[in-house]
Write a structure and sequence with these properties.
The chain is mostly helical. The chain is built from 8 helices and 2 strands.
């Protein structure tokens, strides 16, 4: 006899590779990504900004975190500068991470927008697969199985990546800001 039963629907989908997921296991790295998304900084500048935000870490620890993000492909070296007999390395994030929670009222407030988005996406996906389904399936066949998943959703992953990359490009080009104004 069951004491409790509940249906659970998927509400969130996170798409990333395991190395990036491991890199985000530490909240300091998320803060570093946030800082480096808007400007390039040296280890010393990152260290100072973390201290200003209340996170006192040794400079070697900051360097360690930046190296993990760099190895995961989330931070890049952008500039080398000679300074005082040494070389300053400047880093910049190529990854933006959003750490927000929608307010409790969001589901009700956004119900109409959610339905309109779902309907528009349904039509868009039908068109996309009609015009580019063969290309998507070809890439899906080249994907390696996820070591953590028993069920593979290759086409869904590719679709989410296409949507995410397109939104990112619109944002970086400034077109998204224009559309949201």
């Amino acid at each position: 006899m069951s004491l409790f039963t509940a249906d659970v629907n998927i509400e969130n989908v996170i798409t990333t590779d395991p190395e990036k997921a491991r890199a985000l296991e530490n909240d300091i790295r998320a803060k570093i990504l946030d800082m480096l998304a808007d400007e390039e900084m040296t280890i010393e500048q990152i260290h100072a900004e973390l201290e200003r935000r209340g996170d006192e870490k040794a400079e070697t620890t900051v360097r360690h975190h930046v190296n993990i993000l760099k190895d995961a492909g989330m931070v890049e070296l952008t500039r080398l500068e000679e300074a005082g007999g040494g070389t300053l390395k400047y880093y910049r994030s190529n990854t933006r991470v959003f750490f927000y929670d929608l307010p409790e009222s969001a589901e009700e407030s956004l119900a109409g927008a959610s339905e309109a988005t779902r309907d528009a996406l349904r039509a868009f996906i039908e068109t996309l697969f009609a015009e580019h389904g063969d290309e998507i399936r070809t890439v899906a066949e080249e994907l390696k199985p996820c070591e953590y998943c028993s069920t593979q959703h290759y086409e869904e992953f590719i679709l989410r990546e296409l949507l995410n990359r397109s939104l990112t490009e619109l944002s970086e080009d400034g077109d998204l800001d224009d559309l949201l104004d």
